[in-house]
């Protein structure tokens, strides 16, 4: 339980709030590169700021405030040019650093005399970086820290996809779920069994959980009634990367990106090794899709897939969970440690230091390894027979005929790309991506 004031401290993300300043010390994923196959400008709301993300004709990314500083028109309805973005109302243009580069009427009629005025006009502009098919933004003080290349982004011979979902609640509810081991037994396994009509509380029971801190956040491991210390659930801890990233298992990330106090963008980057007979495999394009979280027919949340189930828990806590009314128990040890770390990080930022997990050394950021050697097992991939057997097991976890178990609603086009990569069914085309 925390008092209402601490709850506000932990959950407010706007500029000038302590947590808003803390969260601005990290890079956040805001879009997929493949979104820009269809568009050149995308609206983004991040940490309570309304922005537009664009790629100009020279290929440079820009992220600037959404409203034009002239008379506040919406730059989403502007257009991109060779270098920057131009407002459609009176044609003022801005570069990726937020400088006003053109004021057509004033430049023409006042010539050089307009230069000082034009140069005085700036819009908020933030750095953007591309990694693993994602676009990351940094809204904090400069110089920006390094964007870490987690080892999963470095794995070869796999197929990745990016999934977004808009979640109507505060980011911290979703992030606290990252270090909550016991919910797997109930929210996923037992509830999935109930939904499949299997009844009873059939999931293996948690007997022991262990939460540990490491440089970039936390890890937890667990022993269930049917596992021991040789099981991956113990040997390959699930990781929480500060401040808001979940890396369960070893094949996907879940980012809980704070949109504003009451909204979160869920960003999933999911990777899977192709079967050995498909290797070597090189993916040249990482597809993205948006997952619906509400069933349009019933108006209820979708409950069939893993992160849909998580979402039900997050949004059920309210737009901003009232933590003054909760009762933490022994299974919540990770939650307690995470909140303590956040408070320590708030103090670090107040002292002018970097919070935990921020990397300044480019060499260190080039490849950040997990605290165990799961890469050797996971990246290698499986022979087709074993791969098919695993897939069948995974598909039993959800009440749907999907390969993708995390979110409902995968578009047919992405499913076909996945099947083609994995060499499945009619989509099993020659492995064109294998040219290296
Ligand atoms: S409002 Fe954008 S140029 Fe006038
Ligand atoms: Fe979960």
| Tally of domains | 2
Number of helices: 13
The geometry reads as globular
Low-pLDDT regions: 429-436
- The amount of beta strand, in percent, is 15-25%
End-to-end separation:
54 Å
**Helix fraction?**
25-40%
Compounds present? FE2/S2 (inorganic) cluster, fe (ii) ion
Radius of gyration: 23 Å
Strand order of the largest sheet: 13-14-15-16-17-18-12-19
Q: Average pLDDT across residues? A: 95
Strand segment count: 19
Describe the fold and architecture.
The protein is an alpha+beta fold and 436 residues long. It folds into 2 domains: 25-131, Rieske [2Fe-2S] iron-sulphur domain (Rieske Iron-sulfur Protein); 146-434, no CATH class. The protein contains 13 helices and 19 strands. An 8-stranded mixed beta sheet has the order 13-14-15-16-17-18-12-19. FE2/S2 (inorganic) cluster is lined by residues 68, 70-71, 73, 87, 89-92. Fe (ii) ion binds at residues 177, 183, 187-188, 310.
Summarize the helices and strands and which ones pair or pack.
Layout: H1 4-11, H2 18-23, E1 28-32, E2 41-46, E3 49-55, E4 61-65, E5 79-81, E6 84-86, E7 93-94, E8 100-102, H3 104-110, H4 115-120, E9 125-126, E10 128-131, E11 134-137, E12 158-167, H5 171-176, H6 183-195, E13 206-214, E14 217-224, H7 232-235, E15 238-241, E16 245-247, E17 252-260, E18 263-273, E19 288-290, H8 306-316, H9 333-350, H10 362-365, H11 374-378, H12 384-395, H13 412-422
Parallel strand pairs: 12-19
Antiparallel strand pairs: 1-11, 2-3, 3-4, 4-9, 5-6, 6-7, 7-8, 10-11, 12-18, 13-14, 14-15, 15-16, 16-17, 17-18
The structure holds FE2/S2 (inorganic) cluster (FES) and fe (ii) ion.
FE2/S2 (inorganic) cluster (FES) is lined by residues 68, 70-71, 73, 87, 89-92.
């Amino acid at each position: 339980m925390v008092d209402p004031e601490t709850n506000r401290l932990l959950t407010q993300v706007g500029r000038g709030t302590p947590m808003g300043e803390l969260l601005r010390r990290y890079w956040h994923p805001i879009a997929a590169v493949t979104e820009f196959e269809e568009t050149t400008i995308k609206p983004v709301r991040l940490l309570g700021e309304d922005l537009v993300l664009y790629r100009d004709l020279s290929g440079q990314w820009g992220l600037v405030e959404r409203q034009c500083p002239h008379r506040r028109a919406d730059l989403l309805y502007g257009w991109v040019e060779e270098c920057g973005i131009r407002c459609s109302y009176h044609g003022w243009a801005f570069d990726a650093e937020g400088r006003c580069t053109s004021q057509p009427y004033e430049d023409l009629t006042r010539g050089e005399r307009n230069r000082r005025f034009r140069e005085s006009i700036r819009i908020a502009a933030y750095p953007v970086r591309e990694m693993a098919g994602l676009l990351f933004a940094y809204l904090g003080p400069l110089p920006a820290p390094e964007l870490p290349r987690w080892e999963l982004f470095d794995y070869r011979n796999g197929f990745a996809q990016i999934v977004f979902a808009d979640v109507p609640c505060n980011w911290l509810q979703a992030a606290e779920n990252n270090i909550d081991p016991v919910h797997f037994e109930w929210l996923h396994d037992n509830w999935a069994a109930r939904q499949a009509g299997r009844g009873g509380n059939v999931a293996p029971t948690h007997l022991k959980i262990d939460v540990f801190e490491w440089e970039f956040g936390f890890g937890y491991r667990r022993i269930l009634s049917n596992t021991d210390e040789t099981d991956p659930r113990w040997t390959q801890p699930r990781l929480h990367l500060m401040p808001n990233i979940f890396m369960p298992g070893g094949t996907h990330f879940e980012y809980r990106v704070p949109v504003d106090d009451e909204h979160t963008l869920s960003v999933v980057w999911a990777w899977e090794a192709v079967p050995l007979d498909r290797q070597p495999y090189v993916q040249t394009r990482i597809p993205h899709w948006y997952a619906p979280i509400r069933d349009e027919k019933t108006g209820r949340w979708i409950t069939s897939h893993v992160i849909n189930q998580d979402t039900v828990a997050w949004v059920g806590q309210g737009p901003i969970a009232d933590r003054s009314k909760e009762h933490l128990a022994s299974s919540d040890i990770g939650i307690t440690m995470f909140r303590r770390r956040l408070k320590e990080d708030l103090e670090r930022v107040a002292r002018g230091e970097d919070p935990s997990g921020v990397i300044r050394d480019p060499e260190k950021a080039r490849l950040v390894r997990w605290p165990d050697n799961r890469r050797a097992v996971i990246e290698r991939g499986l022979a087709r027979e074993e791969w098919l057997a695993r897939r069948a097991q995974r598909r039993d976890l959800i009440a749907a005929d999907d390969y993708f178990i995390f979110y409902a609603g995968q578009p047919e086009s992405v499913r076909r790309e996945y099947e083609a990569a994995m060499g499945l069914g009619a989509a099993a085309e020659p492995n064109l991506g294998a040219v290296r």
